[in-house]
Amino acid sequence: MSYDLSMKKIKALSFAAVCAVALVQSSLAGIVLDAPGHVYEEGATLTVSNVPADSSWTLTDWLGRNLPTPNPQSPTPNPHLPTLSVGYYHLRCGNEDVTFAVVPKLESRTFDRNSFYGVDSAQSWVSRKGRFLCPWYDGDTYRLVSDLIWRAGIPHVRDRLSWNEVSKKPEEYDFGHYLYNADLLHERKIGISGMFHDTASYVKKMQKLPADLKALQAFCKKAAETFGERMEDWEFWNEIDVSAYAPEPVWDYAATMKAACLGFRDGAKETGNRNLLVLPGSLCIAARSVYDEGLFANDMAKYSDVFNFHTYAPIAQYPGIFADLRAFMARVGIPDRAVWMTETGTQQEGRCSKESVIRGAKAHSPEQELIHAEFYTKSQVALQMQGVARNYLFVFGTYNEGAGGKDWGVMRRDGTVKPTYSAMSTIVQELGSARLLGEVRVGDGQRAYLFEQPDGRQTMMFWSVSPVDTDANVPSAKPLLERPLKLNVRDGEYAVTDLCGMRSRVRAENGTLALTSTRYPAYLSGLKGLKADVPALPPGKPTPYQAAADEDLRVIFKVSLDKRDFGIAGHKSVAEIRRDKGRMTVEIWNLDGVAKEGHVAVVGGTLENLPERISLPANGCVSFDCFYAPTPNPRTCSVRGVFKAADKPTLDTCASGERVS
Q1: Sequence-separated contacts (24+) of 169-174 with Cβ below 8 Å
Q2: Where are the beta strands (DSSP E) in 94-153?
Q3: Distance of CA 345 to CAs 13, 96, 266, 313, 314, Å?
Q4: 461-506 tens-digit pLDDT
Q5: Which helix (H) or strand (E) holds 15?
Q6: CB 507 within 8 A of CB 494
Q7: Which of 88, 184, 246, 490 supports an S-S bond with 422, CB 3.0-4.6 Å?
Q8: Cis peptide, bond prior to residue 68, ω within 30 of zero
Q9: Alpha-carbon distance values, 227 to 141, 161, 193, 379 (Å)
Q10: For 26-30, 340-344, 346-350, 446-450, which range has the lowest pLDDT when averaged over its residues?
């Protein structure tokens, strides 16, 4: 069992369990800063309240280095601090300690929709009222999360939807807070990746997947129509290769994905959202398997535009994971398709022991927060080196798993942000529209990566190698691992920006620039003319499928195998027939407004009781109980149809088939 698989099973159970946690306190304790989430724009005034009388003040940066002029410029009870540059800070007043971030002004943000950088906000689920403290915006946690993402300049988020929650009865919909969140994000120029992985209570299920393909198509169409251009893409289901989400065989998921895809595309056509992309449910097991082969044997490439993947593996495992993935994509005919990581994250920082303001939910220690920020920034480059086109870190809001011991969030339960927030803001500001050229070989124990900006200037990210780069577990954020780094560059002044956005100036003389790397990545900007020693693998692009003139993708087969005659093996991907003949039900769905007639062809056996000629009603389904008699030693059973629309008698259309291994 892989690391990813066992961890994701925990996640499947704990989304519901998180509802049981309780607030221990109703407001922030001690000194309080006025900015929502304690995030300020550069140049803003920082006002403090609840200040103890006659307290001493200390202001440090994110590494604990003392900063000048820490004392407030006005007397209590509401003093304000000096204007600070972009960065992440600790303010200590007596025995109280608060953190805050200063980010670039919003007018400097571009929100590039082609950018690599995104975050899985999951806000419609994990940011419901009561999940964390929110003394701002009258307790509107959705607005707080949306504003914080906006102020960080992040151009893409992944959110979630519940079919069962928004549609209690057929053809009745109330998208409620899901649409509210989409509006909040859209107003802030943030694109959304939408998904759902549940079935309405009034719809019959196979096990967890919907059995009624017409109902599924109708819901997906309604969702795409309702959310319109707020959505950059729609994803159907989650982590389909693990049984926690989709226990059904791979061919059953393929049938539902086809219906969902048609619904999403129909809804996009109604609203003119021509750029909408469709994603299959993500794969999350590290090694490619027969499940993946079965998925694409069932025409998945024709019903999706992007390859969707999740990993929570340590960075050192990325090269092997993605080499395997690229080889698989080449085998199934999509070598140039974009790979999106709709979830990534880490457990390298270990379990948490610090008490939270939520009963039952532990919190990162300050040291664990730094390990997480280090992982985040390094992983973004490591993924781009492997040719990944987009990434969504799991998760922005507050969320615990593993009996509360695993803290995933970029936010804390008190509504404030961790150093990872500033690391995200900084990487988007420095590299949001840049292209990774590749790695530049520098000193031993150091890494450097070269990016090209849209105007041709170059930026280098550099750091010292630490256990985050090499190990599965990182027990400490120390030592800092300071190492001298010399670069051969043109004479002149350059800007260096640290992990959390604080900027300084350095000068190159006699063709040499002397720097110091640490385990925390930093950015060197203003470069020109440098070359990468190890080029990054090129990112793919979304590849919408263009159906052939004689191909009809709106006819879908769904084959149900009788459990008395068949067993399912091979990771939900192989049907083992136990008798000479096996009972199965063949459903043929015509998700089109035009009636059709035709016949079915079977490879790998015969289907008894299947009529020679079949009529398909418009927007309907026909079903046949059949006996399957295999040919000697069949490797697969492939069921496909050739149908023609009544109003186009000269056009035979090859319907989408169902393949059972």
Answers
A1: 169/202, 170/202, 170/215, 171/218, 173/222, 173/226
A2: 96-103, 117-120
A3: 18, 31, 34, 8, 9
A4: 999 999 999 999 999 999 999 999 999 999 999 999 999 999 999 9
A5: helix 3-17
A6: yes
A7: 88
A8: no
A9: 21, 11, 11, 31
A10: 26-30
Q: Under DSSP, is residue 344 helix (H, G, I), strand (E, B) or coil?
A: strand
CB 433 within 8 Å of CB 111: no
Q: How far apart are CA 366 and CA 56, in angstroms?
A: 22
Q: Which residue's entry shows tokens 């604990």?
A: 64
Report whether 460 contacts 446 (CB < 8 A).
Answer: no
Q: ∠479-484-486 over CA atoms, to 5°?
A: 150
- Between CA 323 and CA 542 the distance in angstroms is 19
Q: Which residues are CB-neighbours of 77 under 8 A, at least 6 positions away?
A: 49, 50, 51
114-125 pLDDT per residue, tens: 999 999 999 999
Q: How far is CA 660 from CA 25, 598, 637, 657, in A?
A: 55, 22, 5, 10
DSSP 561-616: E-TTTEEEETTTTEEEE-SSSEEEEEEEEE-SSS-EEEEEEEESEEEET--SSEEE
Asked whether the beta carbons of 18 and 400 are under 8 A apart, the reply is yes
> DSSP alpha helices (H): ranges in 332-471?
366-385, 419-431, 467-470
More confident residue, 616 or 1: 616
Q: Could you tell me the CA-to-CA distances from 149 to 153, 208, 232, 237, 455 in Å, in that order?
A: 7, 33, 17, 25, 26
Report the alpha-carbon distance of residue 238 to residue 216 in Å, rounded.
16
Query: What does the DSSP assignment read for 43-63?
Result: T--EEEESPPTT--EEEEETT
SS3 state at 95: coil
